[in-house]
Amino acid sequence: MSTVTSAWWLLVTMLLMVLLLVLLWYSAVLVVPAVLVVRAVLVAVRPGWSSGTTRPDG
């Protein structure tokens, strides 16, 4: 019984570590496009927000 329990906890720990690594990888992959999208939206809402001197197009 104790062997099964320890093996179960080892499996759960490994799965949690893999899940954490996957979440870190996806967050690292998704943060850059998310930041670019947020900047694009902010620039679209407030033209010239990023540089301060850029005039709105049109």
Could you characterize the architecture of this molecule?
- The chain is mainly alpha-helical and 58 residues long.
- It has one domain (1-46).
- It contains one helix and no strands.
- The chain has one helix at 2-45.
pLDDT below 50 for ≥5 consecutive residues: which ranges?
none
Integer count of domains: 1
Largest sheet: none
Residue fraction in strands: under 5%
Features:
58 residues; rod-shaped; 1 helix; mainly alpha
Please outline what is shown here:
By secondary structure, this protein is an all-alpha fold. It has one helix at residues 2-45.
What are the SSEs and their pairings?
Elements (H helix, E strand, L loop, with lengths): L1 H44 L13
